[in-house]
Structure formats: structure tokens, C-alpha cells
Amino acid sequence: MQISKRFVGFVLVISGAFFWGIGGTVAQHLFQKFNIEVGWLVSTRLLIAGTLLLITQAIFKDRQQVFDIWRQKFTAFRLIVFGLVGMLAVQYTYMASIQYGNAAVATLLQYLAPVMIIFYLVIRRETVFTRKDGVTVILALSGSFLLLTNGSISELAVPMPAIIWGILSGVTLAFYTLYAIPLLKQFDSLVVVGWAMVIGSFAMSFIHPPWKIDVALLTGEALFYLFIVIIFGTMLAFWFYIESLQSLKAKETSLLGNIEPLTAVLATVLWLQEPFGNFQWLGTALILFMMVYLALKKE
Description:
By secondary structure, the protein is mainly alpha-helical. The chain is 77% helix and 0% strand.
């Protein structure tokens, strides 16, 4: 019995989104139980995952592209900016939000990026504010308010540093999404993202070198969780998601990608036993509904 390409696409995107959600939760466990430093984890995961993505490109796809991207000054400069302001900033702000709060809140705040992109494009007059945009903004802001306050205006249910880093994560993700478009039109995504990860790791290495860590922290259990974060939560998650686009429509992959925040919420609450109030569940539902609405609603 021959397995259809479309079925393989569904398995890949669901697996990739699941790995992303689990990766954030496992990173939270590393921060809490093993006192792993955020900067070290970011520089290490980017270096290993980025190198593996470039090796994957060289083995399974057009290996010439791995170095062709550096031959033009425009693409080389844009790649460096993308690696520093896009990839590194997204990874660090997201991980910092997890450290100060939890993976569920950090992931959901990062998913405010579509709203930020809408406002940016409207301000730049590259698009007009539509009814769809209005519904998206209302759902996102209402969901975020309930998520962060649990329905109480006078008391935040989430630490302020986690909120600040989470919002910054959404901003940097919006930049990451928009700035990469010209590069992705010329080169395979594995090349663009692989090099961006390596560049981000190189920059972070000046502050948090991957080789500088208290070896006593790296117990067998800690190394196992690091393996999950780097291989499953970073390298395979991205690769599977991108590969799914070969057999599925972008609308379908974005819809199925909503499994990521749902996975992060459930894993945070059920595995790490993080408290989650009724209004926070309602806020989570609103944000998830916003993502489904964006994926299904026609332009």
C-alpha cells in the first residue's frame, strides 16, 4: 500500500508543530531544574541546529546554495542582519520569556506577531485595514488580556519580565517573518535559516560561548533534555514544517501549526504542573481561535 504524499505532509507538519511546542516546555524544565543559562542554551542550540540544517541541505538538496548565498553583497548583508536581528533576537526573547514565566505564555505571546505585522503594513500603507484584520486584533488583544491577568485588572497572573520578553518575542518574530521574504525567494529555506542560526550563535558566543559551562550541570538527564530541545525542538521541528509545504497548501500548514501553542499549554500545565486559571484558559482559546480564523479566512 502506497502512502500518499499528502498524508506524509500532514504527518510532517503535525510532528514539527508538536516538537516546537514540546521543545519550549523542555527548555523551561532545563531552566528550572538544572539552572541552565538562557544565553548558553540559545548559542548552543543555534550552533548545532544550524549546522545540521546546512548539512541536510548539502546532502539532500542543492549543495551549491550553501555557499552561493554569500557571493552577492546584498544577500550576504541581508543574511547577517536576519541572523542577528531576526533569528538571534527571536530565540533569545522567547527563551527569556520562558525563563521568567512559562512556555505556554511565552508561546502564546509570540503568536501576537500576525497582529504586529498587520499594524506595520497598514502604517506603511502597503495594505488597508480590513474586517478580517479587525476581528484578528480583537481576538488577539482580548485573549492576551485574559491570559496575562486571569480576568483581574488589578493583578497580573504572569510576571512582568515574562510579559515584556514575550511581547518582544512577538515583535522580533514579525521582523523575522517580513525581513526573510527576499532571501527565501532566492534560496532554499534550509540555507537561509541554517546560516541565520549559525550567525546568531557566533554573535552570542562572544557573551555566552557554547563551550563555557559548568560541566556539573550537564548530568545524563540534562543532556537528554538538551538533545530534545536541539534536535527535536529546533532542527527537526523546522525541517519537518518546511518539508510539509511541498505537499500541503500554506493555509493547511499554518492551521495545523496551531498544534504548537496548544502542545506548549498542555505540556506546561500537565507535565510541569504550572497553575492556569479559568480566564487564562479562555484567553488561550481566543488566541487559538484567532490562529484558526487567520488560516481559514480567505483574503
